[in-house]
Amino acid sequence: MSDQPQPQQPSEGASTEPGPAEPAEGKKPKRPKRTGWRRLLPTWRMVLGAFVLGTLIVVGLFFLGYSMVKIPPANALATKQSNVYLYADGTEIARDGQVNRENVTLAQISKAAQHAVLAAEDRDFYSESAVDPKAMVRAGWNTAMGKGKQSGSTITQQYVKNYYLAQEQTVTRKVKEFFIAIKLDREQSKERILEGYLNTSYFGRNAYGIQAAAQAYYGVDAAELTAPQGAYLAALLNAPSEYDVIAHPENQKAAEARWNYVLDGMVTKGWLEKSEREGMKFPTPRETSGTDTGMSGQRGYIVRAIKDYLIKNKVVDEDQLDAGGYRITTTLQKKKQDAFVDAVNDQLMAKLDKKNRKVDTYVRAGGAAVDPKTGKVLAMYGGIDYVKQYTNNATRRDFQVGSTFKPFVFTSAVENDSETQDGRRITPNTIYDGTNKRPVQGWSSGYDPANEDDVSYGDITVREATDKSVNSVYAQMAVDVGPEKVRQTAVELGLPTDTPELQPYPSIALGVATASVLDMAEAYATLANHGKHGTYTMIEKITKDGSDVIELPAQKSSQVISREAADTTTKVLQSVVQNGTATEALAAGRPAAGKTGTAEEDTAAWFAGYTPDLATVVAVMGQDPVTAAHKSLYGALGLPRMNGGGAPTQIWAQFTKEALEGTPVKDFDLQLQEGADQIEYPPSAEPEEEPTEGQDEDPTSTPDAPSPGQNQGRTDGGTTTGGGTTGSTTTGGTTGTGGTTDGGTTGGTSDGGGTGDTTTSGGTTGETTDGGTTGDTSNGGTTGLPGGGTSPQLTTRRPVGQ
């Protein structure tokens, strides 16, 4: 018998299928393998391992960074580079490298101001750590999602950026800022960090630190700052240039909202009593910065406008400009700039008597001149002196433009081939009803604007209504065209879409919008350039550190409105200069077109005009030098009224004459709207029978019933407001009366009729022009056309279409 083990025979009935192996004694059974989709999921051991490993890596990197990043020496703002600003010919305008800063201790800063800054920037400064990871993550996410650059920095981090690091927005700088802030928080007290932050922060107006800011904005030391004043300075930290309500009065609401946010935060933290908070009023800063850092005269206005242009167009940001090293060649021409200053001084400032006329202390002036063909700003007048009047009157957007807006309404009418309510095409000779306070037709809510001095003009052509700036005509025309179309035309010409009060209502025609002088110059330059618009520019060239050329926005030019629309408007505006409210512009000695304008209560007077070579806008404004409130200019310069046809037009004429001296005189090359010299007569109900040969029309006869839609402003029942018929009675022009105020001739012929043909002055059927006298241009009759000639006279009744 063999010693090898013999195979065991299965017992009868036993299964021959293989079964699971029996585990060896003392060993755990193997875990079954995962199948299907479960194989894709990590096990809890994998998750735990990854978490532990990740934590170790983060902790390791943290300690590595903490050990490697050292607190550097402070960056010396005193050695920072200047930015150099040059005229187009290379002549230096200014340098802005001087630093206005005075360091003070925390004890020399009022508690109210300290708490205001904490409420604005870091309310948990004293209780929280030097960094706020959650805020940093949130800021990074918002920036990545296109919500603009967000700050996730605590006061400690901001102090580190201001005092130790550069201003560039890089990951490396943020990492350094993170670790230095943590180290600084361990090595310095919270009071020391807050003191450093308040002494290094930029508040605008070239003021570094809260002491310089207190002097620049309120003329007090930091220790004297009240809670409202401190809250405003704290609000400035968020956007120094944007929230300066003197430099940018159009941002008053945004600044006040930020100011309220700061004060509410002080109440929330228990730093300010709620009852005290409720009685606080916004502390308007003073107009002058109180310091002359080489920015006196026009220099400061120019530098601030250039900075705003660069920031708005995202060429460089404010932090980069603050770092310095830029050489900026502007489009401004020194000869024209000097001429603008001379014109304002001669025609306005020299005539002020501030000692004997308080109203003269309110007078401000702003101006801008643009090359129509290139869009380059050639000259700009910001105010009497940057360190005395801080607001740039050329770029501010808080005064109504008045009737200088009216040409945009007419341009829109021609561009859109618009018609009156009764179906007549709008041209320079379309007849409108110029009755004072005539209700606008075709608008759902009642609107009946008054004419200046409540004068009624009766039937009047568009050209003459422009000459005399008739509000009732242009309010109606805005509705005829469509207020939204008018608004769109103004934007296409050059007004910014966010211009305050540029709303699609009939009042848009009267100039309630508050565009800046520079905005209006850009829009009028488009008219001068035959409807072709090129976005204005103030920069010719900019370099960094003497060599790196900075890319500027592309200057695109496009035909935004038809040439016929622009040129026909120019033709009408030539009449304003030759026959209307702007005859003072003739002193320029050049073919010119333009429009005067006056804001409500005479708070501002404007003239916007152009030659083929130069578009210039001038505004004289009224503002209280202490409260910054808008003020009426009644009585300024010893005159009863401040009208656009006075000082603004006189300034324009002197400047234009000097600025273009030595250049050839050019005339306008115009392509007019078809039918621009043909009168559009109001329609009659049916053609009138022409008088038989040798038979005169009866000057007192009237139709049996008034024609529908005879005049703009006719109400149901046939009553014509001024110039037409009232029921069946002729108003105006009755024989022997010499005419009436609202419809007949004023100073016309004695019998109110015409010469040669007898007519009804004012029109028995509402078809005649205002007055209708041959040769009478004071209130109707022949209308002088620019360059000679007259518009057709209406001396007899005509069938429709004849």
What is the element layout, followed by pairings?
Layout: H1 44-68, E1 84-86, E2 92-95, E3 100-101, H2 111-121, H3 133-144, H4 155-163, H5 171-187, H6 190-200, E4 207-208, H7 210-218, H8 227-236, H9 252-268, H10 274-278, H11 299-312, H12 318-323, E5 326-330, H13 334-347, E6 363-370, E7 377-381, H14 406-415, E8 431-433, E9 459-461, H15 462-467, H16 471-481, H17 483-493, H18 517-528, E10 532-534, E11 539-544, E12 548-549, E13 557-559, H19 563-579, E14 593-598, E15 604-610, E16 615-622, H20 647-659, E17 725-726, E18 729-730
Parallel strand pairs: 1-5, 3-4
Antiparallel strand pairs: 1-2, 5-11, 6-7, 6-16, 8-9, 10-13, 11-12, 14-15, 15-16, 17-18
Notes on the structure:
The chain has 802 residues and is an alpha+beta fold. Helices cover 30% and strands 9% of the residues. The chain is built from 20 helices and 18 strands. It has helices at residues 44-68, 111-121, 133-144, 155-163, 171-187, 190-200, 210-218, 227-236, 252-268, 274-278, 299-312, 318-323, 334-347, 406-415, 462-467, 471-481, 483-493, 517-528, 563-579, 647-659, and strands at 84-86, 92-95, 100-101, 207-208, 326-330, 363-370, 377-381, 431-433, 459-461, 532-534, 539-544, 548-549, 557-559, 593-598, 604-610, 615-622, 725-726, 729-730. The strands form six sheets. The chain has a five-stranded mixed β-sheet, covered by helices on one side. Helix 14 packs parallel to helix 16 (471-481). The longest helix is centred in the N-terminal third of the chain and has 25 residues, at 44-68.
